[in-house]
Amino acid sequence: MQLTKAEEQVMEYIWQLGKVFMKDLIDAFPDPKPATTTVATLLKRMQDKGFVAYTLLGNSREYYPLVSKADYFSKHVNGIIRNFFNDSPAQFASFFTRSANLTTKELEELKKIIDAEIKKKKK
Asked: Topology of 5-65 in CATH?
């Protein structure tokens, strides 16, 4: 399941803050701040989708993520690879390295990461 752009923005703050009360979440937004009802609606939808939960502390809800940022974006990227690159990570990597306008230094860093992963897989 995927989040909308607005839900992703709320989720980003939750990932950054860890556990968060509504007030802290709204305070994290730049001005103009969203309405409390808007954020509450987004949080409810995110709960229904299984991305966040809360602990009731008195009359307040302390929200926390159920999905890590790495897991969410991993699934998102895998979906892109499946849907747009014929389920081929090699096609995706080829497109990314050619289209992202990477510097030589950035390409060398990617190569080091890939080489390290190859080493791990061979063990």
From this structure: Arc Repressor Mutant, subunit A (1.10.10)
